[in-house]
UniProtKB/TrEMBL annotation:
It is found in: Cytoplasm; Membrane. Coiled coil: none annotated. The lineage of its organism: Eukaryota, Metazoa, Chordata, Craniata, Vertebrata. Keywords: Cytoplasm, Membrane, Signal transduction inhibitor. This is Regulator of G-protein signaling 5. Pfam families: RGS. It comes from the Eukaryota.
Length: 130
């Protein structure tokens, strides 16, 4: 469990929140309660994808991420604009570590602007900083 000081830093930094295993778990629980956990799950999947070294594994993961989060009617479709979706699809013709960068940045910005302020106001977070 993080110290209240550590948890306080999450108010100003979604990055610190997502990099902390406890912070990520808390944030995901909160998003689940709001029915928007796909954003954090997509972000985590992209982070994992970028660490993939094998081109074969990278292609497999890219396909899985695309099918789970990007394609229209995907089970956990994330909310990205058509331009970002088109760029991402083009990037997947030859998967590289940066294939999902634009989409991941969009989702990060969405969570930062939208979900993080609600999380910070939630009782869950308020308990952490006591």
């Amino acid at each position: 469990r993080p110290s209240p000081e550590e948890a306080l830093q999450w108010r100003d930094s979604l990055e610190k929140l997502l990099q902390n295993p406890y912070g990520l778990a808390s944030f995901c629980s909160f998003l689940r309660s709001e029915f928007s956990e796909e954003n954090a799950e997509f972000w985590v999947a992209c982070e994992d994808y970028k660490k993939t070294k094998s081109p074969v594994k990278m292609a497999e993961k890219a396909k899985k991420i695309y099918e789970e989060f990007i394609q229209t009617e995907a089970p956990k479709e994330v909310n990205i604009d058509h331009f970002t979706k088109a760029v991402t699809m083009k990037n997947l013709v030859e998967p590289s570590p940066s294939s999902f960068d634009m989409a991941q940045k969009r989702i990060f910005a969405l969570m930062e602007k939208d979900s993080l302020p609600r999380f910070v106001r939630s009782e869950f977070y308020q308990e952490l900083i006591k």
